[in-house]
Write a structure and sequence with these properties.
Distance between the termini: 69 Å
Strand content: 5-15%
Strand order of the largest sheet: 6-9-10-3-11-12
Mean pLDDT: 82
Shape: elongated
Number of strands: 12
CATH class of the largest domain: Mainly Alpha
Length: 576
């Protein structure tokens, strides 16, 4: 946690110095008040000097006002620093996650990344806030109080020397046991987040298969697990404040007992005893405040470790040090003896993949479920990097291109069409910020989405909820296709993007697309043979290898795998 604080608080060193100066003023003023109070009692009250009481009382009032002003300004700037720190950490995490490849995202998991960006940052942010308002002032007050108490009466200060170590030992034991539990709590929060996300995302499936009771039990298990761990920590800290309060009160009793004996024996004055009591209160109260802080530190330490893990993870896919420049955008995609295996996998998903997709041609990829179709497509935009061979776009290995330069050449419609919260227009302009309304309507016409958008109340300004939950699956796919068309790329990649469309809409869409993408390279992954049977080249995948390449007619004559796919979908008469 110290490394994280040192790195991210460095830009605020001047503000922290200013807050430290204010806290020093606050501590000095707070420590000076008991001395003034002792002077009033010793030299004013006991001697009946009213003028002295009023004069020193006026000084005390001024010191109190200075104390209040310093406290208000210190809290204001402390809160500002803490909130800025939290903002910076969240921004750093978001930018880091954006740079991750799919492998890093899968490694941490989406629920965990969300928890680290929200809950974990909040834990560390609260510690920073407490640090600049409590942790810094508590040692100043405690050390200053000990020095002034020793100056007043050394023998009586033995009470402080006995109480503080007892408090420290007790706090250390509690914190030592709490740190592992706080680490476990953050993992269990991840689990709650994961179960909740799965339940909300899959609520239709859960209801359709009557799994509501099972999901409730699954959530209860995660919830009870987190609750039990939290209760263990809470019970531990529940003993802390009463125990420290008891030590504080016993210390005060001891000071009053031994102090009264010294006053009776003329070893110290009444005003000095009053000041000594106030110093003891300040010292032990500073320890108690620091203890409250220590309640938060273990959890924040666990959170900072989780944040640091993300920030220190280097993406496996990065831009090259010397990227290729001046590469003309033609749209040629080449796979040369490509092999790919997922991290930690024993067997490759793809092996020996070699083909070329040319501009003006449609290359279709078909195969059974699990044959590696989507994995192959994901290698083109470098969502993953090949483990052997190469993928080239316009004659350059994609690993030698800046990713932004690569992505500008591609228009991808993913297997799961995703829409962002906003409007129809804002989603389509994800592909091209400068697209006019007329251009958007034209693209919707090509994607066969013009009719249903026109029926919406606000048409292009109709609201779209997160993920496109307020439109159907087919409508989402058509809007995603229109978004890709708006980009005007050299390479169009359709990853099973027509699966939610009926046959009529599918045919109309493919016909319109053929005219719009006549000069571009089109790569289509499809489950339905009817979608790809007119492609210029069809690649048949089986168990991660190419089982056949050619046109529909050529594959019917040469590929058993393709004939089986055609027969299963269109019937035996079409496979012969």
């Amino acid at each position: 946690m110290i490394r994280l604080l040192r790195q991210k608080l460095a830009p605020y060193s001047r503000q922290l110095t200013f807050v430290l100066a204010l806290l020093l003023v606050q501590a000095v003023a707070n420590l000076y008040l008991p001395t003034l109070n002792a002077d009033i009692i010793n030299n004013g009250v006991l001697k009946g000097d009213t003028n002295y009481i009023l004069r020193v009382g006026g000084i005390m009032l001024g010191v109190t006002v200075l104390f209040a002003i310093a406290s208000i300004i210190a809290v204001y700037w402390g809160a500002k620093i803490a909130m800025s720190f939290g903002r910076d950490i969240r921004g750093a995490l978001f930018r880091k996650v954006e740079s991750f490849s799919q492998a890093e995202v899968n490694h941490f998991g989406t629920p965990s990344l969300i928890t680290r960006t929200t809950n974990d940052v909040q834990q560390v942010q609260m510690v920073v806030l407490m640090m600049v308002t409590v942790i810094i002032s508590a040692p100043i007050t405690a050390i200053g109080g000990i020095v002034l108490a020793l100056r007043l009466d050394v023998p009586l200060s033995g009470v402080i020397l006995a109480a503080v170590p007892v408090m420290g030992i007790f706090i250390g034991l509690v914190v030592r046991k709490a740190v592992p539990l706080f680490r476990a709590m953050q993992v269990k929060i991840d689990r709650i987040n994961q179960v909740t996300r799965e339940t909300l995302s899959g609520v239709r499936v859960i209801r359709a298969f009557d799994r509501t009771g099972y999901e409730e039990r699954r959530f209860d298990e995660a919830n009870v697990d987190l609750t039990q761990t939290t209760l263990r920590v809470t019970r531990m800290f529940a003993l802390m404040i009463p125990t420290l309060t008891a030590i504080l009160n016993l210390s005060m009793v001891a000071v009053m007992w031994f102090g009264s004996l010294r006053v009776a024996n003329h070893g110290m004055q009444m005003g000095d005893l009053t000041a000594f009591l106030q110093y003891v209160m300040q010292i032990l109260f500073a320890v108690v405040m620091a203890t409250i802080m220590f309640v938060m530190v273990p959890r924040a330490a666990a959170s900072s470790e989780r944040i640091q893990q993300v920030l220190e993870t280097e993406p496996t896919i990065t831009d090259p040090g010397s990227p290729a420049t001046g590469v003309p955008a033609r749209g040629v995609v080449e796979f040369e003896d490509v092999e790919f295996r997922y991290p930690g996998a024993e067997e490759p998903v793809l092996t020996g993949i070699t083909f070329t997709a040319q501009p003006g041609e449609t290359t279709a990829i078909v195969g059974s479920t699990g044959s590696g179709k989507s994995t192959l497509i994901n290698l083109i935009p470098r969502f993953y990097d090949v483990t052997a061979g190469s993928v080239r776009v316009d004659g350059v290995d994609v690993r030698q291109m800046e990713r932004q330069n690569l992505w500008r050449r591609l228009g991808l419609v993913p297997q799961k069409a995703f829409l962002f919260s906003g409007t129809v227009a804002s989603n389509l302009r994800q592909g091209n910020d400068d697209a006019t309304d007329d251009e958007l309507w034209r693209l919707l016409g090509i994607a066969q989405g013009r009719e249903f958008v026109a029926e919406m109340t606000d048409q292009l300004e109709a609201p779209i909820t997160q993920g496109g939950a307020n439109v159907s699956g087919g409508q989402r796919q058509r809007l995603a296709i229109a978004r890709a068309l708006a980009r005007r790329p050299q390479v169009f990649i359709f990853d099973d993007s027509f699966s939610a469309l009926d046959f009529r809409t599918d045919a109309l869409l493919r016909s319109a697309l053929k005219r719009e993408t006549a000069d571009a390279t089109v790569i289509i992954v499809a489950q339905r043979v009817g979608t790809i049977m007119h492609a210029d080249r069809i690649i048949v995948l089986e168990n991660g290898t190419i089982a056949g390449t050619g046109t529909h007619e050529e594959l019917l004559a040469t590929s058993d795998t393709y004939r089986e796919i055609v027969a299963s979908q269109l019937g035996e008469e079409h496979a012969s």
